[in-house]
């Protein structure tokens, strides 16, 4: 990652009539960085991406790409940008191969050996007409075209929707390759494990506002580790220790227990447990899903998605 600013979204607002789709969105993407953008249905992810792409104009705040205004300079910006939406619509009477070549031509790019390699990796039959393709195959066409281009910014909005696990893995490998070559990626995804594996920075959006941004490591202090422990003597005082939650003793002697502990209290809890002589200990660090659920557990009607 470099200090070069690729994308800068500050205080972004977007209203459709009386509906505030975006209230306060702040995003920054640097050179060679992969930024994960997650949130529930209707949170504003796709609207934010449309503003960044210059497809709609912001109502307030600003969005710049390569230090250019996303709305005013969208034509210039698109020359160095590749975009794959979550549901790709293609010309029905063209073949997949013709479509890939057309997309490349429209981007000022050419069909290369890399394109052929991608077609082979994704196992796409390029001789078939687009109208015969499944959703997954339509995604493959767009992904092959995007990964074939040599640009500085790649924007993926739910890109693996419809792909099988093997093709998801190929996507992840290709994103890692982009990062290794200093490219920047904005990835909007509902697959938390996908974001967790690939992204340097994660931004969580809810109800039109970015409510948390940082690396997964920097966010882990906000959630809890899962601990399974066996001690030689009873764990006296564990039930009263600060930061302990969901404590469950597995035997009457109180020498086997499972519980969750706030990340910033682990040191003090371990000091307490060593007094009972630890025999066996297993800790599981918090995941992105744990963090995400912490923000959304109070609203079960909202689901992770676009």
Automatic annotation (TrEMBL):
<keyword id="KW-0547">Nucleotide-binding</keyword>
<feature type="domain" description="ABC transporter">
    <location>
        <begin position="7"/>
        <end position="232"/>
    </location>
</feature>
<dbReference type="GO" id="GO:0016887">
    <property type="term" value="F:ATP hydrolysis activity"/>
</dbReference>
<keyword id="KW-0067">ATP-binding</keyword>
<dbReference type="InterPro" id="IPR017871">
    <property type="entry name" value="ABC_transporter-like_CS"/>
</dbReference>
<dbReference type="InterPro" id="IPR051782">
    <property type="entry name" value="ABC_Transporter_VariousFunc"/>
</dbReference>
<dbReference type="InterPro" id="IPR027417">
    <property type="entry name" value="P-loop_NTPase"/>
</dbReference>
<protein>
    <submittedName>
        <fullName>ABC transporter ATP-binding protein</fullName>
    </submittedName>
</protein>
<dbReference type="Pfam" id="PF00005">
    <property type="entry name" value="ABC_tran"/>
</dbReference>
<dbReference type="InterPro" id="IPR003593">
    <property type="entry name" value="AAA+_ATPase"/>
</dbReference>
<dbReference type="GO" id="GO:0005524">
    <property type="term" value="F:ATP binding"/>
</dbReference>
<dbReference type="InterPro" id="IPR003439">
    <property type="entry name" value="ABC_transporter-like_ATP-bd"/>
</dbReference>
<keyword id="KW-0813">Transport</keyword>
């Amino acid at each position: 990652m470099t200090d070069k600013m690729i994308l800068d979204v500050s205080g972004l607002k977007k209203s459709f009539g009386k509906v505030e789709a975006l209230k306060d969105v702040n995003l920054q993407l640097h050179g060679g960085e992969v930024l994960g953008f997650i949130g529930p249905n209707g949170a504003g992810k796709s609207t934010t991406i449309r503003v960044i792409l210059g497809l709609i104009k912001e109502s307030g705040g600003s969005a710049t790409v390569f230090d250019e205004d996303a709305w005013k300079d969208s034509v210039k910006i698109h020359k160095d940008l590749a975009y794959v939406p979550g549901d790709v619509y293609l010309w029905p009477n063209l073949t997949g191969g013709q479509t890939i070549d057309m997309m490349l031509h429209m981007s000022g790019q050419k069909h290369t050996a890399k394109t052929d390699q991608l077609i082979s990796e994704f196992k796409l039959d390029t001789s078939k007409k687009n109208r015969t393709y499944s959703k997954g195959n339509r995604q493959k066409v767009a992904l092959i075209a995007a990964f074939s281009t040599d640009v500085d910014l790649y924007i993926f909005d739910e890109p693996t929707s419809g792909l099988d696990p093997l093709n998801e893995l190929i996507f992840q490998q290709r994103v890692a390759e982009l990062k290794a070559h200093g490219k920047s990626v904005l990835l909007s995804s509902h697959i938390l494990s996908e974001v967790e594996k690939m992204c340097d920075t994660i931004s969580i959006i809810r109800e039109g506002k970015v409510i948390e941004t940082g690396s997964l490591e920097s966010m882990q202090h906000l959630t809890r580790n899962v601990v399974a422990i066996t001690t030689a003597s009873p764990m006296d005082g564990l039930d009263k220790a600060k930061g302990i939650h969901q404590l469950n003793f597995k035997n009457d002697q109180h020498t086997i227990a499972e519980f969750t502990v706030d990340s910033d209290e682990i040191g003090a809890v371990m000091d307490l447990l060593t007094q009972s002589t630890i025999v066996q200990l297993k800790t599981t660090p918090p995941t992105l899903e744990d963090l995400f659920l912490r923000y959304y557990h109070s609203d079960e009607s909202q689901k992770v998605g676009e």
